[in-house]
Amino acid sequence: MKQKKLHSAWVVNPILAGRLKPWLIEKGSLTLRLQKRYAAFGVNPVNVRYAKPIFDEALRLVLPSYKTALIREVLLLGNHQSVVFAHSVLPRTSLRGEWNGLGKLGNKPLGEALFANPQVKRAPLRFKKLAPHHVLYQHAVKHLSTKPEYLWARRSVFSLNCASILVTEVFLPQLLST
After folding, report:
1. Start-end of H helices in the chain
2. Long-range contacts for 91-94 (Cβ within 8 Å, ≥24 apart)?
3. In 10 A of CB 49, how many CB atoms?
4. Domain residues of the chain, as ranges?
5. Are 34 and 41 within 8 A, CB to CB?
6. pLDDT digits (tens, 9 = 90+) for 76-92
7. Which of 7, 31, 174, 177 is deepest in the core (most CB within 10 A)?
8. Counting beta carbons within 10 angstroms of the beta carbon of residue 43, is it exposed (0 to 12), middle (13 to 18) or buried (19 or more)?
9. What is the percent of the chain where pLDDT is above 90?
10. What is the CATH number that goes with domain 2-177?
11. Is a pLDDT exceeding 60 seen at residue 168?
């Protein structure tokens, strides 16, 4: 019963997302869309480490709770301002074969690598309005001068052969004001 409750916290439709909804439901590459919108697009890695994923992330990836994964957190920059906070969970088993280089991207966008390969499959997007008590909200606002009441996020699993990674994108207020 608890598992269903955790999964239902991420919804299939971001109701009441307002002007942010087109960004949330975009099924193509967010990286490409940001590159088209901003003359200066960049990726600023803020935290890359091996750690245990958040409980519901481990469930989504069918990863035992004691296993660590590469957690990559970056800021996507539009005209030198943070517009998206991206949090990716890359299990060790997924960093082999064709995805061997994903753990060493540095300031290169993960989305570029994922969408470049037509064999990569993406699970349907899920959405969540993050409140201040949510760990991803707390990680995202570390990089903001003012803290909003909430932040919208979306996530999905990308798969290639038997490897899967989870990507969560948290949309920052600056996206709509630039």
Report:
1. 2-8, 21-25, 30-37, 55-60, 110-116, 135-141, 174-177
2. 91/61, 91/63, 91/67, 91/163, 91/164, 91/165, 92/50, 92/67, 92/68, 93/162, 93/163, 94/163, 94/164, 94/165
3. 10
4. 2-177
5. yes
6. 999 999 999 999 999 99
7. 31
8. buried
9. 85
10. 3.40.1410.10
11. yes
